[in-house]
Design a protein that fits this description.
2 copies of one chain form a homodimer. Chain A is of the alpha+beta class. Chain A folds into 2 domains: 3-85, Orthogonal Bundle (Arc Repressor Mutant, subunit A), CATH 1.10.10; 93-144, Ferric-uptake regulator, C-terminal dimerisarion domain (Dna Ligase, domain 1, 2-Layer Sandwich), CATH 3.30.1490.190. The first copy, chain A, has 6 helices and 6 strands. In chain A, strands 1-3-2 form a 3-stranded antiparallel β-sheet. In chain A, strands 5-4-6 form a 3-stranded mixed β-sheet. In chain A, α2 (21-32) crosses α3 (39-49) and α3 (39-49) crosses α4 (55-67). The mean pLDDT of chain A is 95. Chains A and B meet through α5 and β6 of A and α5 and β6 of B. Chain A binds a DNA duplex through α4.
DNA sequence: ATTGCAATTGATAATCATTATCCTTTTGCA
DNA sequence: TGCAAAAGGATAATGATTATCAATTGCAAT
């Protein structure tokens, strides 16, 4: 049993939720994949292992993973919410190529500090933020020329 | 005729699009409102002045306003796209209260520079970005105590 | 082990913002 | 004025997500 499963079980227990095969399987498959995955993509993977699982169950399980602190939502604004690992995967922002859709994870500690300062200057206590940087990657720029 | 209308007319002309009463009215009402407005809210306002206008027309007109550079989309991630003025209303980011939903427009030129630098360090040419800072405003913090 | 029951599941219907379709009405121009 | 193309209005379609509900299952107490 890895640490994530441990966290999940503790979360379930604490909230009087049940430990089911479906939830275990969904968590397992989610953990195996790095990067961003949509609910539907995850559902497709889950179906391969157990075709009887419904997609509503996947949506419900993803909510639990978020509440348990194991997953985090990302919204690139294309109408689909994606999910990524949160445990042992510290906060970061995203750099997205408008050409090929490639995404990179980036962090800049100075930006992070300034965000806090900006918020405070307006009397806000910052809890979290989202930052999406859009542009063209090296490859796509070369193709354009 | 104000500058925005001028820009809109030029845009229509340049693209062989027609200048219609509906488009004029929607633009006029959009310009009158400061802040963020959803397509539906705008539709409600438009209906008051001309109940015969359909909401598809409002959606279509908003697209034109964006293409003409007069409006800009904002996505707070709540499933509704909002629109705000773009002309004479330079880029800014948003500071959003998780308590009361209040939003403020903020800019920090140092952050802007750093964003560009971060993107470049990964070989990206930055075209635009979105930054949403979430937290609790002064009011909401006091209420919590 | 068995039971009792609330939590969970799977299938499916419902939502809700946004888009597409389709037919009618206008518009801009000859 | 007449006409082709553009635009509008009504409405159906879309597509991701959520709600509903009957059937099943996990689990604590027996």
């Amino acid at each position: 049993m890895n640490e994530e499963q441990n966290i999940f079980h503790k979360y379930l227990e604490k909230h009087d939720l049940r430990d089911t095969l479906q939830r275990e399987l969904i968590l397992q498959i989610f953990l195996r994949r790095e990067g961003h995955i949509s609910a539907e993509q995850l559902y497709d993977l889950v179906k391969k292992r157990d075709p009887s699982i419904g997609q509503a169950t996947v949506y419900r399980a993803l909510k639990l993973l978020i509440e348990a602190g194991l997953a985090r939502e990302i919204d690139f604004g294309d109408g689909v919410i994606r999910y990524e690992h949160k445990y042992n995967h510290p906060h970061h922002d995203h750099l997205i190529c408008r050409g090929c859709g490639k995404t990179l994870e980036v962090v800049d500690s100075v930006i992070e500090k300034l965000q806090k300062r900006v918020a405070e200057s307006y009397g806000f206590e910052l809890t979290d933020h989202e930052m999406y940087l859009y542009g063209y990657c090296e490859n796509c720029r070369q193709k354009r020329q």
